Amino acid sequence: MAPKKNGNRPPTWRTLRLNWRIWSVSTANPLHIDFVCTGNICRSPMAEVIVRDALTAAGLGGDVRVTSSGIGGWHVGGPADERAQAELAAHGYDGSQHRAAQFGGDRFDADLIVALDTNHVSELVARGVPEQRVRLIRSFDPTAPEGAGVADPYYGGPAGFTTTREQIEAAADGIVAWVRNRVQSQPRTD
């Protein structure tokens, strides 16, 4: 029986091999993005959850590992701030599984380290992270002013957490585009 002209052919060894190469490249060495704020209980966990959801929705969830951490270790092992969790939950995100971590270890080697404000950029560079791997989160939002960060909502009320979520959501598409570009430009290996 001749194959159909519409391209609906049964898989051949060649197409299976190609599909395996695509899968193995995307899962063997996923990209790593780490979001960094001060204590890893407000801004960076919100960014981790929101961007992970955006990457999954874009079909890129298996191509990238998304983490978050804090410059300081005050809250290591603790959950995200209750107000951050409430803001996320009110908009369909689940931040309940977050446990705070301090920046270091394998996070130092992340492909992209996304700082939530300029103080975090300075601290990361001072710790030896190459500048080309550090970006401000709002630099992924084409409508944000140059050099803008996300203000810390910790000492404020619920409105600060709403602003934080909105600013992170505005940057999420730019981060998804960055990941897509990196995944598409990765060399294929046999």
Automatic annotation (TrEMBL):
<feature type="domain" description="Phosphotyrosine protein phosphatase I">
    <location>
        <begin position="31"/>
        <end position="178"/>
    </location>
</feature>
<dbReference type="Pfam" id="PF01451">
    <property type="entry name" value="LMWPc"/>
</dbReference>
<feature type="active site">
    <location>
        <position position="43"/>
    </location>
</feature>
<feature type="active site" description="Nucleophile">
    <location>
        <position position="37"/>
    </location>
</feature>
<dbReference type="InterPro" id="IPR023485">
    <property type="entry name" value="Ptyr_pPase"/>
</dbReference>
<comment type="similarity">
    <text>Belongs to the low molecular weight phosphotyrosine protein phosphatase family.</text>
</comment>
<dbReference type="InterPro" id="IPR036196">
    <property type="entry name" value="Ptyr_pPase_sf"/>
</dbReference>
<protein>
    <recommendedName>
        <fullName>protein-tyrosine-phosphatase</fullName>
        <ecNumber>3.1.3.48</ecNumber>
    </recommendedName>
</protein>
<dbReference type="GO" id="GO:0004725">
    <property type="term" value="F:protein tyrosine phosphatase activity"/>
</dbReference>
<keyword id="KW-0904">Protein phosphatase</keyword>
<keyword id="KW-0378">Hydrolase</keyword>
<dbReference type="InterPro" id="IPR050438">
    <property type="entry name" value="LMW_PTPase"/>
</dbReference>
<dbReference type="InterPro" id="IPR017867">
    <property type="entry name" value="Tyr_phospatase_low_mol_wt"/>
</dbReference>
<feature type="active site" description="Proton donor">
    <location>
        <position position="152"/>
    </location>
</feature>
